[in-house]
TrEMBL record:
<feature type="compositionally biased region" description="Low complexity">
    <location>
        <begin position="83"/>
        <end position="100"/>
    </location>
</feature>
<dbReference type="InterPro" id="IPR015865">
    <property type="entry name" value="Riboflavin_kinase_bac/euk"/>
</dbReference>
<keyword id="KW-0547">Nucleotide-binding</keyword>
<keyword id="KW-0285">Flavoprotein</keyword>
<keyword id="KW-0418">Kinase</keyword>
<comment type="function">
    <text>Catalyzes the phosphorylation of riboflavin (vitamin B2) to form flavin mononucleotide (FMN) coenzyme.</text>
</comment>
<keyword id="KW-0067">ATP-binding</keyword>
<dbReference type="InterPro" id="IPR023468">
    <property type="entry name" value="Riboflavin_kinase"/>
</dbReference>
<feature type="region of interest" description="Disordered">
    <location>
        <begin position="1"/>
        <end position="28"/>
    </location>
</feature>
<protein>
    <recommendedName>
        <fullName>Riboflavin kinase</fullName>
        <ecNumber>2.7.1.26</ecNumber>
    </recommendedName>
</protein>
<feature type="domain" description="Riboflavin kinase">
    <location>
        <begin position="19"/>
        <end position="197"/>
    </location>
</feature>
<feature type="region of interest" description="Disordered">
    <location>
        <begin position="77"/>
        <end position="118"/>
    </location>
</feature>
<feature type="compositionally biased region" description="Pro residues">
    <location>
        <begin position="101"/>
        <end position="113"/>
    </location>
</feature>
<dbReference type="InterPro" id="IPR023465">
    <property type="entry name" value="Riboflavin_kinase_dom_sf"/>
</dbReference>
<keyword id="KW-0288">FMN</keyword>
<keyword id="KW-0808">Transferase</keyword>
<comment type="similarity">
    <text>Belongs to the flavokinase family.</text>
</comment>
Length: 254
């Protein structure tokens, strides 16, 4: 049994971008898990079916924590669904929020071109995920569960979720307490945010917002420093290609 992992790096991977076997791809509709994420941990995790006919790499990949980008296709009536591409409202540019004791930053210069936030109904978010047996809970079935680094106003069971997995953070562990597990997951979130906030790790042609905590010691203060990585160099087209799933078959939670 373990305490939170000490002295681990806050950034994973080379600045130029992911290296083989990454990126790895996984997709499906969000299914129910054991209902612990929100209630016990305060960290909701969207589960995807673990099926090696659909995701050939999943059975051989080491259990552990991974990070990358999630593309989520929310139903139009979901409170977090964005306007459609035909009616874009969002333009972005690189900016940060003020740091304590520092003068406010100059207003952002106008963007040279509007950056799309996604396409074909998909919205892109940074994510951190766990693949494995959750030794703290002693699961007997392997699960794949994703914490999207965004505060959603409501659930999205049944929504189509695509994952571009870009790197490995750490092995999964048992813990001496729930607090120790939660502390390590928050640190994983910080590692994902910082690692993705680099041009070589951000999708090209898409504006993405990554909240990075202000301090250097991790923490869960999402959004204290907001980094907008405009137009990275990573090929993210797979994330936003048109959906092949039939709507109306979302298998929503009762
Ligand atoms: C980034 C991340 C790291 C995780 N690391 C571990 C871990 O090291 N050990 C473990 O037992 N569970 C780990 N989990 C899994 C949580 O225990 C799991 O999300 C929780 O059991 C909720 O499951 P549920 O979706 O079935 O409710 C991790 C989850 C996430 C999102
Ligand atoms: N930031 C988020 N990341 C992942 N899922 C979220 C997030 N916010 C809300 N959810 C919703 O919460 C659900 C997961 O909650 P959780 O308590 O872990 O239950 P379950 O065990 O059924 O997965 C997801 O399926 C999704 O609908």
């Amino acid at each position: 049994m373990a305490t939170p992992t000490p002295n681990r790096p806050l950034i994973v991977g080379d600045p130029s971008g992911p290296s083989p076997p990454y990126p790895l791809r996984m997709e499906g509709r969000v299914i129910s898990g054991f209902g612990r994420g929100s209630k016990e941990l305060g960290i909701p995790t969207a589960n995807l079916p673990v099926d090696d006919t659909q995701t050939p790499w999943i059975s051989s990949t080491p259990s552990g924590v991974y990070f990358g980008w999630a593309a989520l296709r929310l139903p139009a009536d979901h409170p977090d669904a964005l306007p459609t591409e035909s009616n874009p409202t969002t333009t972005t540019t690189s900016t940060t929020t003020p740091q304590d004791g520092q003068p406010p930053p100059p207003p952002p210069s106008p963007p040279t071109k509007p950056l799309r936030q996604g396409a074909n109904g998909f919205q892109i978010y940074p994510m951190v995920m766990s693949i494995g047996y959750n030794p703290f809970y002693k699961n007997t079935v392997r699960s794949a569960e994703v914490h999207i680094l965004h505060r959603f106003q409501s659930d999205f069971y049944g929504a189509e979720l695509r994952l571009l997995v870009l790197g490995f953070v750490r092995e999964e562990k048992d813990y001496s307490s729930l607090d120790a597990l939660v502390a390590d997951i928050w640190f994983d979130c910080d590692v994902a945010k910082r690692s993705l906030a680099r041009k070589g790790w951000a999708p090209s042609g898409v504006g993405v917002v990554v909240g990075v905590p202000k301090g250097d010691n991790g923490g869960s203060d999402e959004g204290e420093k907001v980094v907008v990585v405009s137009d990275g160099t990573l090929d993210g087209e797979w994330l936003v290609r048109p959906s092949e799933l039939v709507d109306g078959d979302e298998g929503k939670k009762d």
